[in-house]
Amino acid sequence: MPTFIDEHFMDNDSLNAFKNLVNKDSQSHISTKEVFFNQAQQKLYCILDAHSEQSIRDYHEKFGLKCKSIMPIQQVTFGVPDESEKLQVIGELAARLAHDLRNPLSVIKNVVEIMETKQRLRIEEKIICYGRLHRAINRISHQIDEVLDFVRPTKLTIEENLLNEIISSAIEKIAKPDDIVINLPNNFVYVQCDFIKFEVMITNLIINAIQAMNNSGQVDIVLSDDGKFATLQVIDRGSGIPKDVMPKIFEPLFTTKQIGTGLGLASCKAIVEQHKGIIHVSSSVGKGTTFTIQIPKSHAAAQEPQASNKASQPQIASIK
Ligand SMILES: Nc1ncnc2c1ncn2[C@@H]1O[C@H](COP(=O)(O)OP(=O)(O)O)[C@@H](O)[C@H]1O
Ligand SMILES: [Mg+2]
């Protein structure tokens, strides 16, 4: 039998009709599976099995029920992944992480072997070896951080922060290739946010920009403030994002890279949403990509209806 959802106004007449129904009806062709009462809207929703929409209407008429609408439903899903789906995601994540860690680990192994066999290294050789170790270790810790940031979302610690300070701190954490120039903003913008989470988000965006430019070129970081919203832009002149890739970039585990967790932008999106902000991307293949993040200046203001309306807009991805 097909399944339907029917919606009723819950005025006194309907309520009485329902009570009668519960007392009297025992041999109907309609079987009610679930009943939900929405107090705020004074409405009642029934999920039921019936032969047809008409048989529900006849039934309503028979018992004097006032019905607002009847809708057939194919299936009701509640969005909770079952255990096997969860295990699959964890399995994929573990495999991706293991794969990503292997490269920097083999760099560390090689460098340590060189240092062991060549006991007396010249100062220049030492600098090269330590540089390689440093970059490999940074990469490992970034990969681990990305996974942890994603799987363990923590509560926000909101404070008034200078965005410029967070940007500088993020850049310090990145092993910036020598051929990359990061142009910093020369205006100062404050926002109420969680310092650590913003640092993670900015680090992810800058690393993506650097990777999109094949480790050489300029990244611009632009800040602005209109009193209500603080805006941060990370602009690169890299490969750009193809049209077919664009809708997937915020999905967890989606990556087009050989070495990539596919968690960076999913984390960024979660962080922006936690701050009641919006994230927007525009891109042109072969020319570059701009990520724009808008955050309400005051986290408390973000709870107010007007601000949260704006903030609850979905992220928009556009192609230039
Ligand atoms: N600045 C960018 N330029 C071009 N493509 C990008 C950029 N940022 C993200 N992408 C695309 O979005 C995908 C997902 O990014 P992300 O979630 O950070 O995962 P990862 O960097 O591990 O692949 C990337 O694999 C890439 O295809
Ligand atoms: Mg990334």
Q: Would you give an account of this structure?
A:
42% of the residues lie in helices and 24% in strands. It has 320 residues and is an alpha+beta fold. A hairpin with a 4-residue loop joins strand 2 (31-38) and strand 3 (43-49). The strands form 3 sheets. It has a 6-stranded mixed sheet. The chain has a 4-stranded antiparallel sheet with strand order 2-3-1-4, with helices on one face. It binds adenosine-5'-diphosphate and magnesium ion. Magnesium ion binds next to helix 6.
Write a compact overview of the structure shown.
With 320 residues, the protein is α+β, with helices and mostly antiparallel strands. 42% of the residues lie in helices and 24% in strands.
| Overall 3D shape | elongated
The CATH level-2 architecture of the largest domain is identified as 2-Layer Sandwich
- SSE order, one letter for each helix or strand: EHEEHEHHEHEEHEEHEEHE
Q: In whole angstroms, how far apart are the ends?
A: 49 Å
What is the CATH class name of the largest domain?
A: Alpha Beta
Helical element count?
A: 8
Into how many domains do the coordinates divide? 3
Strand % is 15-25%
Q: How can the largest sheet be summarized?
A: 6 strands, mixed
CATH H-level superfamily title of the largest domain: Histidine kinase-like ATPase, C-terminal domain
Which strand order do you get reading across the main beta sheet? 6-8-9-11-10-12
| CATH topology description of the largest domain | Heat Shock Protein 90
Secondary structural class:
alpha+beta
Helical residues, percent:
40-55%
**Ligands bound, unique:** adenosine-5'-diphosphate, magnesium ion
Count the beta strands. Answer: 12
- C-alpha Rg (nearest Å): 28 Å
* Contiguous runs where pLDDT drops below 50 for at least 5 residues: 304-316
